[in-house]
Amino acid sequence: MQKRTNLIFTGAAIAFGATFAYAELSGSYLVPLDHEAIRYAKTPVTDPIARLAQKVASGEVKLEFEDNGYGYLRSMLMALDLNVDSQVLVFSKTSFQAPRIGARTPRALYFNDSMSLGIVRGGDVLELAAVDPKQGVIFYSLDQERVDKPRFERRDTCLQCHQSGGTLGVPGIVVRSVYPEPSGMPIFNAGTYVSDHRSPLKERWGGWYVTGTHGDARHMGNAVVRDRDKPDQLEPDGTQNLTDLGRKFDTGAYLSPYSDIVALLTLEHQTHMTNLITRVNYETRMALHYQEGINKAFRQPDSTFSDSTKRRIDSAVEEMVTYMLFAEEIQLQAPVKGATTFAQTFARRGPRDRKGRSLRDFDLKTRIFKYPLTYMIYADNFDGMPEEAKARIYRRLFDVLTGKDTNKKFARLTVADRKAILEILMDTKAGLPGYWKAAPAVGL
């Protein structure tokens, strides 16, 4: 992955016209969130926090507060179906609660397919990022003080950091690696990395704790910079294949003593996938909005699509499909084993086909997942994309999985992989186009 040299990215929105040229998402502009087709701040949302807030306000759900430093944490995990074994720990000062974060007091994050929750020891708020089916990631906070009916505050100010090149120019989340001092302060001039399943292990988890085993390959986790004259060199000893973090900080102060390596691998994949879904969603909506104006101006049928509109949607879709199929995934050099039950509880979330297979099944020997198509195809935000985008995604997936598309970038997909993925999807994914029913007889 490309090394990034600043923590916070800024940029200006650009206007769209008939001569629009689509840029690869990884080098993208910031989407104008006030665009008439987006209206990020004004469109009503139905994300998990918005739904929970309604239940709390009506009295249907009561959040319990603990005076032991956790506050609403346990109650929120239960209300949002967030497992404790999803906990990952980050000690770099890369949160708005940075003064309370350090190597001895890492921030804990918990996540599922549709949201993440962060807590800092002694912090004033819980940090929340929830995925809305239409609008993408929405940011909230919850005050850590006992009240009868806690209120969730939407925090669009989080976009100062959470809308950048690292998030593909849309409101999103990233797993970022830095070179941290012992205090947790990133050494910015040493550079940073945004990680996903395409990133080599050596560029992952700087400023994060990592528990689990991974063979001889080295990552950046569990380490700090000891020599400021060598800001890009992390301490070399006692940082790899750790299953106990007790020497690093007081693990008893956390719900779990672990920061599971399998959870980290999953979170990295998921964050970029979430951002891709949002970006394809936004690009399609803006393209259709522009096309609608052209059709009205020239009195063309509503079904008219210009070549530029098609290219804009197709370009966004192609990058997403490539990522969905793990075409550029970095291969694991040795088997990976987590330190918690995360791999088991994550896989149990299914769904499973008639042979008992799931896209959530892990491999962890040479690659992350056994069947290389993202489980995020079941996510509400995937289904919430415009039909024009989903139709193109399904066609591209069908062409690749049936062997019609022979592009070398998909060469890692074996015949067995393609057949298994097709069968799993046809058993488990609602809304597939009718032509998928012929898939077993096509190309395999």
Topology:
Elements lengths: L47 H11 L14 H7 L8 E3 L16 E5 L3 E5 L5 E8 L3 E8 L8 E3 L4 H4 L12 E4 L13 E4 L12 E2 L2 E2 L47 H37 L9 H18 L12 E2 L3 H7 L31 H4 L3 H15 L13 H14 L16
Antiparallel strand pairs: 1-2, 1-9, 2-3, 3-4, 4-5, 5-6, 7-8, 10-11
Features:
single chain; 444 residues; alpha+beta; 2 domains; seven-stranded antiparallel sheet; two-stranded antiparallel ribbon; 9 helices; 26% helix; globular; disordered N terminus
Describe the structure concisely for a colleague.
By secondary structure, this protein is an alpha+beta fold.
Can you walk through the features of this model?
The structure is a single chain. The protein has 444 residues and is α+β, with helices and mostly antiparallel strands. The chain has 2 domains: 44-262, no CATH class; 268-441, no CATH class. 26% of the residues lie in helices and 10% in strands. The protein has helices at 48-58, 73-79, 159-162, 261-297, 307-324, 342-348, 380-383, 387-401, 415-428, and strands at residues 88-90, 107-111, 115-119, 125-132, 136-143, 152-154, 175-178, 192-195, 208-209, 212-213, 337-338. Strands 6-5-4-3-2-1-9 form a 7-stranded antiparallel β-sheet, with helices on both faces. It has a two-stranded antiparallel ribbon with strand order 7-8. A two-stranded antiparallel ribbon has the order 10-11. It is globular, with a radius of gyration of 22 Å. Mean pLDDT is 91; it is low at 1-26.
